[in-house]
Amino acid sequence: MAARAFLLTAVWAGGNSTALPGLAQESAAQSPATQPTSVNTDWTQWRGPDRTSMLKSDILASQPNLENLERRWRVEVDASYSGPIVAGNKVFVTETKDRKFEVVRCLDRETGKQLWESQWEGSMKVPFFAAANGSWIRSTPTYNDGRLYICGMKDVLVCLNAETGAELWKIDFPAQYETKLPDFGYVSSPLVDGDDLYTQAGSAVFKLDKRTGELKWRGMQGAQNMMSGGAFSSPIIATLHGQRQIVVQSREELAGLSLETGDVLWRQPVPNFRGMNILTPLVIGNKIFTSTYQGGTFLYDIKLDGGKWSVEQLWKQPTQGYMSSPVVIGNHVYLHLRNQRFTCIDLATGKSTWISEPFGQYWSMIAAGDRILALDEQGDLLLIKANPEKFELLGKQHVSDETTWAHVGFVDRDIFVRELKAMSVYTLTQPKPQ
């Protein structure tokens, strides 16, 4: 099971706790980093338009189950673990071809017809103990302002014209910055903010000009060995104590970096096994939630006093996250665990209010209102009611006989499912009158 982290790293009751005065109001209000977005917004990057997997919509709330799920189209492609990207009438998917090339396909959203294809030589093999399911490309691309940014396995970042597939620029981090090739490939997904692109590559954090790839700064340079080099988690932009910053989780620690300079504002070691800091953390007000393999589940309070930043661990509990990134609804976090169970955690106390029976090894989740849509790696799509008092499974539909490790996407009523060797689009039709 431990090797699974190194294989699929793009994607992972009770305990010591203290009450958190005011957390209920803070999490209910939510910081800009966790504000939900409209369901009609394109799915432009890892975990959706704002990287929270949160949608402001009543579409899921109107679904009593998933019986009205209909497949519109399915297109066979080569293998990948990258999540699909949706922008306007286009769907972008990546793949690894002939164990040699990395490919991006642009498909028509309505029909699945291919509009263009672009490829480059860039495939690599992960270590033998992590190669059971292949060495496919796994970083989810980012779309912004007519451009598509794709991270290839060999620490190569490619910028394409999203209309034509033409290459605009490319950065080979090991060649250009003399860094070590990551043992498990480029995993972290790129982030665009304004005119800038941020990415965790070459065991560091880079800020680049999104139009040219020109370096603006390089910060938080770390070790490049097998157990700490590279990054499995993906960066997010957050506002903590009124200051916008980039929050990153390396394989060893959490940190907030200045957007202007790349200087580390604060940092916090995160206990884990063999650098398996994989999931994307949640920023809730001025607090950050994360969970790690053999490390536990944590809530950290990021403080600013007299211009000095500090971090306080508010609570830790023994449940262990793995590859599945959590969602927050109200005052509770919903997290799929390393032991394949699903849990609801009270943010104020750190206690699990319930833990479910086992499901798959991995869930990608989307939350809207009091509903959670989850896709596990076995091809099962689940509809769950976010109830802090008990686990409620409202519906379940098997949507693929292939593995589905890529993050699910959601736009309007369409659900985008990236199977290992196919791309499928399902539509939630209007429920039939009872």
Task: Characterise the protein shown here.
- The chain is globular.
- The longest helix is centred in the first third of the chain and has 7 residues.
- The N terminus is likely disordered.
- It has one domain: Methylamine Dehydrogenase, Chain H, CATH 2.130.10.
- A six-stranded mixed β-sheet has the order 1-2-28-29-30-31, with no helix packed on it. It has a four-stranded antiparallel β-sheet with strand order 3-34-33-32, with no helix packed on it. A four-stranded antiparallel β-sheet has the order 4-5-6-7, with no helix packed on it.
- It has three helices and 34 strands.
- The protein is mainly β.
Q: Gist?
A:
With 434 residues, this protein is mostly beta strands.
Measured as a percent range, the helix fraction is: under 10%
Name given to the CATH architecture = 7 Propeller
Sequence of strands across the biggest β-sheet: 1-2-28-29-30-31
% residues in beta strands: 35-45%
For the largest beta-sheet, the strand count, sense and barrel status come to: 6 strands, mixed
Radius of gyration: 20 Å
| Structural class based on helices, strands and sheet pairing | mainly beta
Low-confidence stretches: 1-7, 9-22, 27-38
Total DSSP E strands: 34
Number of domains: 1
Overall pLDDT: 89
CATH class categorisation:
Mainly Beta
